[in-house]
Each structure stands twice: as structure tokens, then as C-alpha cells.
Structure prediction request, 1108 residues.
Amino acid sequence: MADSELPHRPKPEETKEAPAEGGDSKNASKNALKKAAKDKAKAEKAAARAAQEKAQAAAQDANDTAKHLYGPIPPTEDVLPSIRFADLTDDHYEKEVTVVARVDNARVQSAKLAFLMLRQQGQKVQAVIAAAEPISRQMIKYTGGLNVNSIIQVTGIVKKPEIPISSASLSHLEIHIRKVYMISEAQQMLPMQVKDAERPPPEGSEEGQVDAEGAPIVTLKTRLDNRVLDLQTETSQAITWISSGVSELFAEYMIKSGSRWIFTPKMVGAATEGGSNVFEIKYFKRNAFLAQSPQLYKQMCIAGDMDNVFEIAPVFRAEDSNTHRHLTEFSGLDFEKTFRHHYHEVLEFAEDLLVFILSQLKERYADKIAIIQKSYPKAGDFKLPKDGKALRLNYMDGVALLKEAGVDMSEQERFENDFSTAMEKQLGLIIREKYDTDFYVLDKFPMAVRPFYTKADPQDPRLSNSYDFFMRGEEIMSGAQRIHDIKELEESMRAKGLDPQHEGFDDYLNAFRQGCSPHAGGGLGLNRIVMFFLGLPNVRLATLFPRDPQRLRP
Amino acid sequence: MADSELPHRPKPEETKEAPAEGGDSKNASKNALKKAAKDKAKAEKAAARAAQEKAQAAAQDANDTAKHLYGPIPPTEDVLPSIRFADLTDDHYEKEVTVVARVDNARVQSAKLAFLMLRQQGQKVQAVIAAAEPISRQMIKYTGGLNVNSIIQVTGIVKKPEIPISSASLSHLEIHIRKVYMISEAQQMLPMQVKDAERPPPEGSEEGQVDAEGAPIVTLKTRLDNRVLDLQTETSQAITWISSGVSELFAEYMIKSGSRWIFTPKMVGAATEGGSNVFEIKYFKRNAFLAQSPQLYKQMCIAGDMDNVFEIAPVFRAEDSNTHRHLTEFSGLDFEKTFRHHYHEVLEFAEDLLVFILSQLKERYADKIAIIQKSYPKAGDFKLPKDGKALRLNYMDGVALLKEAGVDMSEQERFENDFSTAMEKQLGLIIREKYDTDFYVLDKFPMAVRPFYTKADPQDPRLSNSYDFFMRGEEIMSGAQRIHDIKELEESMRAKGLDPQHEGFDDYLNAFRQGCSPHAGGGLGLNRIVMFFLGLPNVRLATLFPRDPQRLRP
Prediction:
């Protein structure tokens, strides 16, 4: 039969199990998929029923005036140019367009009328199909019964709706369907609905609950378990663009500065930079480790006369921290640079880098930021310094500001402790209040809280030539002038309880024995920049497929 | 004493051990460093001698008219702007300049004359110091005795030499020294000399041999063992710029095309994509694996409606291959993209990407390429198609070209085998001869030699919609249209002996059960592109700190 390309699939509403309380697939358990797959008896029954329906449908199809206008996409149709939602304007009124989009929702209003909400990278447009030559009842039934999340190709006339469609992103137009073809069919039962994942779950809510409007709550866990669906929300689409933008802007600034893009090894022979928080790898017949940062290698590039280098690469931390801002794998934006007179040359370079990234994000991604703020309005616009220069305070200025606010540190604590997370956040609020900025820099941290390769402050060796960058009171970058003198470096190692004779340090220390220019640098966390810039409640929302001590999938 | 900032260090020629045959430090064993460090008795003797010399030097210094003009850099001097070698021109004749550079060579001609060869990122400039008010004999001795590889700050007058200095990169000028200060001193004994590493070792040569000109041969192993020194050569400097350039151009092209920069996880829960060639990690209380490619994740991004994505990230392969072109860790340039009508849309996009990268390298990095060709002239200029469009042949065209050249494959071999490396290289020569290009594409590989997610050719299921890219007859990219239909995908897995029910595939397969657009993509090896573009004999030369089954350091 030449009919084999027509839609003989069983229609969704004909085969799906009736939910216990007549609800829709919104309430489908996320485990339904696995259960269904295992239930072979049911599947066989359904197949028999489907075959019967197929025969009935074939009989109907004989009278279907529209049978070439819907169903599996015919090869001859495979040549229509399609338009993106983003490019649809008033100019398209009364014109025919073809779009490829997901079914966000499908609804049969009557035997003569059905509606689709179409979704393309989170944006929504309504489509409508009504009985009128050559549209058949079968075609309306097919369209209204399309499985949610299927990808279809729709051809139709763009019309201006009588009243704007508030649930659509493009509320001022709708598509009157002439053809609708299946490109990729989604299964009926989805573990969650994309539209439910669009709403952030209220704090403390649990899976299976409904929100104030009676809509199902999808927890962060369910969203991350089903991250591919979750990425389809308008908010996730926008967040992944911001993440892309941060790395693009970082690379752009670094390249413009004459910096060289480097790729340092992630598999290293020794756990030199701390030890306990490092992942171990089986490397053929011996062990290796995953690099906790490119620190030692980017310094070796400087010793290798590379002068100004940057890297964009994964960073691995075997910390058993289960917080809203810790990951075991994140994207590091690292740089290292020689200077001539003072490490503040590099510090200023880094400050300008951040001001560039954050201000350009606002400029280039204003529409994406606006979308995200609909879901996460709480933190408000990210405030940048008005004069385009970063606010830089000394660590001890921060101590003083906290003291004014009633949070005192003893003389000993000031030089031996870092701020706690709570103190950092409070300082962020104080600085926002006083200086009207969410981005600032603290310089001259106590030497006691910095790693061995940090240069001590020549004026006061209890302090160091090191700095942290903060966004909304949380750290996004740590950096410093590095010791480039071998004797000073070996002394610093010993002072920190490290043994310069340890074999694992050989290559690193030799780099300094062979001459090395004064240099400074820093390492930024991409995911944290995205998180704090947007005011997201969890770093996992700013990460494509997050990894933490509990999560290794998807 | 206010004299404490003057140069009381023992002079190199006064303290160094006389080499056995009066040779210079060129012949120093690479193990000298470790031996020396352990030989405490010697060190103490040397220290005593140094103290004695220091006392003598102090006496001499009292009469030194130039004592403020050399030695450790005084804080008051720390403010001179310095000029880069690259910016030195004829306009500087008779003008005073300050440069910061390494000592490539230091030589005392007489009590009144010494020469320095200065090196800055591989480029060389000669400096000379002659006795004349206020330059003292002590200052000349100090300058001529500087340890090779030390970083110094030199102030002097630029002069035009009577005859060009052929050993310098800037042969038309020299600097007449007025001041010379130490910024970072290198130890006397280096494991190898940077200038010896500038010459590639003749094939089959061994450590300790000398070449036809009597200069020491430094093998690849020694160079890689001492990679920081090796990076300082003019050739390595240029190669690392080309590597930087390839990733810059890749990112530039992708961003211009509207692609989103993604960061997929490198630690994964299951070894899904092959199994045996995967590194295992201890992940808290369980095991994880290092991703062999971002393949499954970039496809999941496409299923997540990201439409057009790219990644620049390390790729890990636990292959015990010890060849000139295999690494256990390399930099992958990956992309994945939806298409509308035919996978050739994506193939053409990728072909244009490579033409863009390779032609722009020639345009933007002509000077670096010229430097590298001095050391590696054999391969010659990389030939690109004259019309700016990639040459695309089918795999079976390649089979036919090889047959013409006398290399036949049986009917069975054609569909079940891939080309061997030798056949690929021969085909590269045939194509260069016939089409005058070193870059070309083979399309439609046999399905039998491609991974399970590859789309079969609908016209001939023995073939597939897949392609490889070649440079000088060696593969630099593999790519294909991917199967986006879940049933087809599960069948393909079973045909390749994989179990779609395996838990590790759940997340990947669910992405297709929930609807996915037709898409294609590819993965490029950055290190191989650099290697074959430049005609380097070994991929390790195109890698900052290479990793192979034998090498985990530096």
C-alpha cells in the first residue's frame, strides 16, 4: 500500500492509560518510563489494540481529503525553508510561513477546532487548526492529539489574533495551520513537563506538591535528573546563553590583550597542590590525579617565556561539600601574566576584565537577563560601579567595615583567619549599601590563609600581595602575585609544612631555578559568575550537567 | 653597610667546577642538578669560598665607579618602561632603551669588552659592554659572567652594527650597555641549553651525540623532560602561538555562526562510549570515568534545544598507543548542530570552518609559520584549495584512487575495513598530486567502521552519513549525521553488540524518547591540526605538556 507514509500511529488519547484521577501527564511519576518499559504484558496488549485501530484508521483515511497534509514528514516536503520564531514580525501577517518547533501543548477544542502551543528554544507561539477545505476532521484530531514535546514542522498563515495571546512569547500573532508533519515524536509519558520546570520551585517544597495556583511543583532534583527536558525551558535556554557569553567575553578580552590560549594537562603525576581534595585516576599500571587547578602549569608557562596566558578548562575538586555553591567539577577561567613594576598592574588588568565581562553581558544579553529575572527576580539587577572602574578595598578595610557593623575579629583572627561565608555576605551588603556596587575586590589578604606560592607583602609579611574578587558578597576569583624567587619559594613551602624536596615538586621548582619573571594571575569560576550575576539560588542551575558528591548523572 | 644591594654574589666563572674537558655548560648532564643538590659537602666548601670572594669583591667595589649601574635591581630603578624586541626598529638608532630579556649567552672578550646575546620569547638581540666612563672592569666582568638564562634588565644605546649580526633575530642593531640589573637569576648548571633545543634532533640521534656542526644534540625526550626550557625556544614560542590561534579561530567561527559555548562534564558515571579505553576515577565511595569525548553530552544539548553548540575541552583516551600522533589527553574542538534538509548542510559548515581556520592561520601567523619552517622545512607550505572551498570526495572515490595507484581492497574490505594509516598517507599524496591540496574531506564511510550513533546512508545501508577530515593524509576530524530516532538508535546499538537496556545509556536514550531534531557534528583534535598544518614530526611538539602511556610529567 502507498498509504504506508500516512499517520497510522495510535493517537495519544486512544492508547494512554487513564490517570487515576483523570489528571493529565503533568502528574506522571518520573519513574513511569522505567515501569512501563518493564511491563511487557501491557505493551503487548497495547500493540494488539494499536493494530486494530490502525486498520480502522486506514478505512477512515480512504475518505481523508487532507491525508497528504499531516503525519510523518514526506520526503517531498523535506525542502521547505523554515523561519525562526525570533525572526517572526508583523510583516508576516497574512503570509505563509513554515516553522519547526516542539509541541508545548496540544488541545482539541471540538471536532472542528484544535490548538497547539509551539515552543522553540523556550519561546512560544500559538497555532490553531480549524475545519475548512481541505482540512479534515482526521487532521484536526491528529493535530490536537500530538504528543507533547514532539518536534513538528508546521506550515500556515500568520494572523493577528483578536486579543493578544498572553501565554505565548509572541502574543501578537498566531499561525493558522495548513500542514503539520512529524519530525521527531516524543513518547506520551514524560518524567516532567517542560512548562512546569519553567517555574522555580518555592523554597522548601517537595516533589508531588502543587503550588499556590495548583500547578505541579518540579523540584531541583527532578529537573537535574531530567536535565535535557529542563534545558528546554525559556529560563534554562537564557542561562546557557549567559554561560556561553561569559566565556566568550573572557576569551575576547584575553585575546585582545595579546594573551596566549593554553591547554595544560588535567592528568598529573603528583597531588602537589593540597593533596586531600584530589581525585585519583588509574593510569595504566600506576596512579595519576586530576588537576585541582592549572596553577602550577600556568606558572610554568610564564617561566617558559609565554608572558601572558589564559586557559578555559574543567577544574576538579574532590571536596565532599554539599552546598548551593560547590561542585566537584566546574569551568575555570584562568590567567597568568608577567608585570614590570608592581602586581597591581595585573590586578587592574583583572579588575578591568571583570568590569568588561559584566558590563558587556548586560549590553549583549539584555533580553536573556530579562527572561531569567522573570523566574529569579529576588536578587535584582546586578550593580556595577558607575565609573567603570572596580572598587578595590584592602582586606583590613573589610575588617573595619564589618567592625562598624558590629562584627569584630580579634587581632589574631585578622591575621590568621579568612572571613567566614556569613561575614563575606554581610560585607557584600555593607558594600552595596555604601558604594552601590555588587562587584568589588579585596586586596592584601593575610598570608596565613593563602597558598604557598603567594608573595608576602614586603611592607608587612603577615599580609600578602593577594586578592579575591566578589560578586554579591560571594567569592568568584582568587589571585595573587606569585613568588618567582626559588629561595623565597622554598622557604614559603617549608613555612606551610610542604617539603620542597618532594619529587612531585621537581618540575615546578626547576622552572624557578632556571629564571622566571615576576608575575601574578587569578582563577575565576565560570559557574559562580553566572550564578551570582543572575542571582540564581544554586550553582547547579548555572551548570549544564552538574557534578557533586551525590550526582554523576545525567 | 649601604652596600648590601651591590653585587656581592660569587661570579659564575669563579665558582663553577671545571668541566672534565674544558667544555662549557652545554655538556652538563641533565642529572647534574640533582647530584649537585645532594652533594652537601661540596656546597659548604663552595659557600666558604664564596664568602671569601665576597670579602675580596667588597674591597674592589670600593673603587668601582659603576657599582650603581649593575647587580641586583635597586628599588629606585624599578620604574623604567621597557621596550619589547618586536617593537625595536631603525628609529631607535642612537637612542637609549631599556629591555627585559634572558641571557642567551654571555662572553667576556677581554678585560675591557664583553658580549651578551639577549633572548625575549625566542627572539635574539646582541648587547655589548666596553670599558669607557663610567663602565668599570668589574661591571664588564659581571656582565660577561652572567648565568645563561637569567632574566636581566638592560639599559643602553641602540647602535647599528658595522656588519649585521647573523646569529641575532634583529641582526641590524645591537645595544651598547649602560646598566644591567638582575631580575631573576638562573642556576649555573642547566639540564640543557635553550639554543641547543632550537635545532630539531636528526632522526635516530641519541642524547650525548653531537651533530654535523659539532653542536650537542638534544633529543625529544630531554626536551620534553625539560619542557619549560624547551618552551623558551623561538620555535616552541611560535608553535604555542599557532595552537592558541587554532582555538581562537575555532571559537571565532563558531560564535559568529550563532553557536553556544558549552561545558560538558568530564567525570561521567558510566563508560558508555566504548568501555575499554577509558580512565577510571575514584569518586568518593564509588567509581567514575573520564569522558572519552563529549559526544553523548553534546547530542543531549541538541535534544535540549540548544540547536548549535561547541566545546573546547580536554579529551581522555586510555589507549596504550605509543606513536608519533597519539596522546592520552588532548584538546578537543567539538561542535554539534541541527540541520533542516540534509546533513551536508552541517558538513559544508564544517568544511568552511576548517578552510577559515587554516587560511586565517596563514594570514594572521605568517611570521610564526616562517620561524617554524626554519626548523621543520621538510613538509613545505600547507596547501589549501585555491577556490576557498574544501575538496570533498566519497570514501569509495578514495578506494578507487588507491586502486589506480595499485593498492586494491576486496569488495568485502571496502565495506568492512577502514583505510590503514599507510593507505591514508598514500591517498594524501595522490590527492595532493591530483588536486593540489593538503586538506580534503572523505564522506560516506562504511557503516561497519563507525560508532553506533552514526546514521546509515538511506540509499545504501552498508555506507553511512559520516565523514572524516584529513590534513596531509592524516585524520584530524571525525563526524557524522547522528541517529535521532529512538527505534533506529536502539537497533543500531544492538547491531553493534551494545545493550540499550544498560543503565548507563538511560539518560542518553531518554533524550531521544523525548524528541530530538536531526543533527550532525564532529570532533577535531587541536594538537593534530597544529602538527599536520606545520608538518611537525611528532604531536608532542604541538602539545604544551604532553601525556602518553609513559609520560605524566612535567
Notes: Chain A touches chain B through 100 residues (CB under 8 Å). The mean pLDDT of chain A is 89.
